[in-house]
Amino acid sequence: MRTSPVASLLVAALVVLRQPCNRNKATARLLLQRAAEHDSLSTAEREACRNLADDLDLDRAEPSPVRTARPPAPRLITDWGSARRHIRAETTRRTADLEEVSA
Fold this sequence. Notes:
Elements: H1 5-16, H2 22-36, H3 43-61, H4 82-102
């Protein structure tokens, strides 16, 4: 069985639309428009190809969603030396208490 060039165009359009991004939709639209130009298709098939291409064009005309920037995450300020300073203060205070007792 021989495949016609129209079938190849239609299969290519389907394959491209498996991952629908703007570029793939534009490519599929062009493929469908080319397929609609072939005489081997009936009038209804050509009209269906044109309608599908127009539908893809309408999808593209919709505005893309606007992404707003996320606010920056609050900086975590970690005072890694606070525990060390606390231990040192306790040690210093105990040392001072011992000096007072021994004096």
